[in-house]
Design brief:
153 residues; alpha+beta; 49% helix
Length: 153
């Protein structure tokens, strides 16, 4: 599978590893790959439901989660899940402009409605674009991990 663009929806990937590695070290190696691709990374805390936050911009990001199954003899089955996340401010701002555009339609203020609708569309598109960028970065990093594991066999 070639890592191209990744539509912003929840995704999963599985990787079989013939060599054992501590989960923290695996996560750090994925983080290093993402940083090498110039991505902004934040680590999740002990009680977060994600391991990293990959920033796409001010309006959107993506959050990966890693799980490891130990299969004995140093083999591991790696499960990755990642999903897009829109910022609260971005959703609020987009909703505000959508409500203002709707109000302008109800008042039959067509020029204002068109302008506010365009702003709403631009904000929504930018949010989608930023989530897509973060999702693609995660997909490419995990493809690098999968390729490295395949070479080590």
């Amino acid at each position: 599978m070639t890592a191209g663009r990744s539509w912003p929806r929840p995704q999963v990937m599985f990787v079989w590893s013939e060599r054992w590695q501590a989960p923290e070290k695996r996560l750090h190696s994925i983080e290093a790959i993402l940083r090498a691709h110039r991505q902004v990374i934040l680590r999740g805390g002990d009680y977060d439901r994600w391991d990293l936050v990959v920033g796409g911009g001010m309006l959107g990001s993506a959050r990966p989660l890693m799980a490891i199954e130990e299969h004995g003899a140093g083999t591991q089955f790696l499960r990755f899940r990642w999903w897009p996340t829109c910022s609260t401010g971005g959703v609020t701002l987009t909703s505000l402009f959508a409500a203002l555009s709707t109000g302008a339609v109800l008042d039959q203020a067509w020029p204002a409605s068109i302008i506010l609708g365009l702003v709403t569309g631009c904000l929504a598109f930018r949010m989608l674009q930023e989530c897509e960028g973060a999702m693609t970065a995660i997909l490419r990093a995990l493809e690098d991990v999968r390729t490295a594991e395949a070479r080590s066999r």
